[in-house]
Amino acid sequence: MGAGRTGSVLAVLGVLGVCATRGPGLAAEGKAGGEAEWAEPWDGAVFRPPSALGAVGVARSPGAPRPGREEAVDLPVLLWWSPGLFPHFPGDSERIECSRGACVASRDRRVRRDSRTRALLFYGTDFRAAEAPLPRLAHQSWALLHEESPLNNFLLSHGPGIRLFNLTATFSRYSDYPLPLQWLPGIAYLRRAAPPLEERAEWRRRGYAPLLYLQSHCDVPADRDRYVRELMRYIPVDSYGKCLQNRELPAPRLRDTATATTEDPELLAFLSRYKFHLALENAICDDYMTEKLWRPMHLGAVPVYRGSPSVRDWMPNNHSIILIDDFESPQKLAEFIDFLDKNDEEYMKYLAYKQPGGVTNQFLLASLKQREWGVNDPLLPNYLNGFECFVCDHELARLDAEKAHAASPGSIPVPEPHIAQPSHMDCPVPTPGFGSVEEIPENDSWKEMWLQDYWQGLDQGEALTAMIHNNETLQGKFWDYLTEIFMKRNQNL
Ligand SMILES: *[C@@H]1O[C@H](CO)[C@@H](O)[C@H](O)[C@H]1NC(C)=O
Ligand SMILES: *[C@@H]1O[C@H](CO)[C@@H](O)[C@H](O)[C@H]1NC(C)=O
Ligand SMILES: *[C@@H]1O[C@H](CO)[C@@H](O)[C@H](O)[C@H]1NC(C)=O
Ligand SMILES: *[C@@H]1O[C@H](CO)[C@@H](O)[C@H](O)[C@H]1NC(C)=O
């Protein structure tokens, strides 16, 4: 597809590949990759949505480039700047067929400055402001896929960071290609029958706590362990992960993280012995909901949840989970769980959505019906290919609008720019899991790490925005910009 024409860009890429040295103490240390969600042995346990980084399913189109179709030369090119995500195999570029027409998807960075290259696609977890492709070319859209935890890259949780992008696919319902239900395969997943109460009563008699906690990623922005530790003072919690561990899973195989990251029936069966599962997301953002929420429901347990503040919007009915933040204290929450634990009739009301007609939330039903991608469903496209086609369609429409304007500039205006909004990734500053920031000592690891990390994300977004505004071409200048912003902010304190 003519990528060879731009081969000379390779030399430049060689230079760009050598990324800038880190600024003096400004850059976040030891986060991102290492702390990424997939590092949590238990969190991803039961099923994974089609992993963006793993093998991808069947592309939406039969896809093989059709030699001899001359028009391919003029197709818009979508360049996956995060090459590990390129959802085609084999080769570095592929013709894709979407609703409005065809595009060429590529991961060959040599096409970056090509006039036909209309969009760059980035993966949020990998996006580094210091390595952004500069200069930013006016004819190119930047598209962001970021379904993972915001803790992987807090740059995107700030206005200046998210507004660098034109098109988004995030966990937020407000993003251009929304993925809030990325961990929910479908209604049937929720409808699975719960184990009989007598069975669970028997486990309780054998010494099991009412509540399960299973978390191995301990130092997270949502600071969940601080809350759970407090809750444990008032009600027994069996904790099997590395965080606040007080119990061991029965078999070495189950303790093995390799088992935990597969859909293991034995593990599922074990977890379903518990009536309540503590389900706390690692970061708090609107619509950021993971398997921590859906898995207990699948197993017929009641999630005791803290995460997306708007989680109620997605629940099967209005009485299916317990929200931690509805209670004024861990003690009050403990009292309520204890009450339900002793009162089967009240407990069973939380599982009413499993009965015929029990799923009454029309918004949930409609959202599942409307989405075009599937979760672990070989018959449906995955959201990686889905978003790629969304970007293709958007660029084809933008090309048409530009052509229409060029043909009659007097009557048809220049197409409006399309810019991502903070609502596409709505993650406020992290707050303590329990108590107030003032009460927590300065040397607390959560306070030292996550508050800093969050605000550094803002600085980085502002630095890159300023560089783009000034038409900077050298990535290496990023650290100068960042230092300047950092100094300015601290002067104003
Ligand atoms: C919950 O749903 C039930 C039945 O659909 C309804 O009667 C009740 O008013 C609802 N409660 C709230 C708080 O919305
Ligand atoms: C893309 O977003 C930038 C802001 O980050 C904006 O300046 C530009 O006009 C937008 N481009 C398009 C094609 O919408
Ligand atoms: C934090 O500081 C206090 C007193 O200054 C000290 O007792 C404590 O051990 C420190 N904690 C950590 C985690 O360093
Ligand atoms: C950046 O380039 C654009 C387009 O070439 C130009 O209009 C603008 O004035 C430049 N900005 C700066 C700060 O040089």
From TrEMBL:
Residues 1-27 form the signal peptide. Residues 77-180 form the Fucosyltransferase N-terminal domain. GO terms for molecular function: alpha-(1->3)-fucosyltransferase activity; peptide-O-fucosyltransferase activity. Coiled coil: none annotated. It is a single-pass type II membrane protein. Its EC number is 2.4.1.-. GO terms for cellular component: endoplasmic reticulum membrane; Golgi membrane. It catalyses: L-seryl-[protein] + GDP-beta-L-fucose = 3-O-(alpha-L-fucosyl)-L-seryl-[protein] + GDP + H(+); L-threonyl-[protein] + GDP-beta-L-fucose = 3-O-(alpha-L-fucosyl)-L-threonyl-[protein] + GDP + H(+). Keywords: Disulfide bond, Endoplasmic reticulum, Glycoprotein, Glycosyltransferase, Membrane, Signal, Signal-anchor, Transferase, Transmembrane, Transmembrane helix. The keyword ATP-binding does not apply. Pathway: Protein modification; protein glycosylation. It is an enzyme of class 2 (transferase). InterPro entries: Alpha-1_3-FUT_met, Glyco_tran_10_C, Glyco_tran_10_N, Glyco_trans_10, GT10-like_C_sf. It is found in: Endoplasmic reticulum membrane. The keyword Transferase applies. GO terms for biological process: positive regulation of protein secretion. Residues 213-359 form the Fucosyltransferase C-terminal domain. PANTHER family: ALPHA- 1,3 -FUCOSYLTRANSFERASE, ALPHA-(1,3)-FUCOSYLTRANSFERASE 11. Protein O-fucosyltransferase that specifically catalyzes O-fucosylation of serine or threonine residues in EMI domains of target proteins, such as MMRN1, MMRN2 and EMID1. Attaches fucose through an O-glycosidic linkage. O-fucosylation of EMI domain-containing proteins may be required for facilitating protein folding and secretion. May also show alpha-(1,3)-fucosyltransferase activity toward the innermost N-acetyl glucosamine (GlcNAc) residue in biantennary N-glycan acceptors. However, this was tested with a library of synthetic substrates and this activity is unsure in vivo. This is GDP-fucose protein O-fucosyltransferase. It comes from Capra hircus (Goat).
